[in-house]
Amino acid sequence: MKWIYQSYCILLRPKLRPSLHKKKVKGVEYTLYKDEDEFRQHHPREKIVPDWRKAQIGEWIKSDDGKVMSIIHRWHMKDTSIRDKKTNDFVRTLLGTASTGKYTKLLGNPAKNIYCFVNYKSNSVVTAREKNFAKMVAMGAKPVNAYLNCFRTKDYDYARDRSMALLREKRVRTMVDKEIELLLDDLGISKTYLLEEMKSVVDSRKARHGDKLRALETLMKISGLLNTDKQSESIALIQEFTGFSKEKLKAFEQGLLPEASE
Q1: Residue 243's closest CA among 194, 187, 190?
Q2: How far apart are the first and last CA of the chain?
Q3: What is the pLDDT of residues 122-150, one digit of tens each?
Q4: DSSP 3-state assignment of 188?
Q5: What does the alpha-carbon distance between residue 197 and residue 192 come to, in Å, rounded to a whole number?
Q6: In degrees, to the nearest 5, what angle opens at C-alpha 94 toward C-alphas 91 and 97?
Q7: Distance, C-alpha 247 to centroid of its chain
Q8: Which helix (H) or strand (E) holds 247?
Q9: H or E element, residue 156
Q10: From CA 253, how far away is CA 10, in angstroms rounded?
Q11: Which of 72, 203, 210, 224 is the most buried (most CB within 10 A)?
């Protein structure tokens, strides 16, 4: 009967609360608390800085979703997310790295890499301006020129930085790929067609198919069938096969093609 009694005691034993999120950074251990109540159980008298944007290294802060942690590092540098690229303060916490700009939100789950910026823009919807940007890039425009045309800025350096940042976002890259597919569809070029043509070239016994094979390979790169990380190469190649690099692209820039309203 002893084992029955032990089993009964185990069932009655209170469940342990999940351990706190802790991480060592350069030999110093930092802790992330899920809310202020949990924080006060360990630090009943410690002060929490009301605005995390003003906190200094080592001070306790509360994130925008209520988590409590301390500032690991704070420094000053140029903020490329601001239109005039003024300098700004940045902070590093267990949620990641964030600008102290007024539009930045410090929230989310503990970061796997605290040196990466907090992804506070969780919106996966592509805006009307971003759709026009993706369309122009797909038609062969340089990203910086597409940004200057679609967004309200005349700052070339700012447009260059922001256009590159947009092309690094998955939702915008997906939109560019869709626009490229639409252009290829207008020409009657589908992935099935490319594969069938490639197979016919491989199966053919005729000797001179080098030029056709290279053309098909180029089209496959454009459509994304070949694994290539050179997005700019695909964008440039689309001009050669669509004819949009001059007349239609110029018409788009002049507002003659239909443009979605924001």
Answers
A1: 187
A2: 75
A3: 455 677 888 899 989 988 889 999 999 99
A4: coil
A5: 9
A6: 35
A7: 32
A8: helix 247-253
A9: helix 156-167
A10: 73
A11: 72
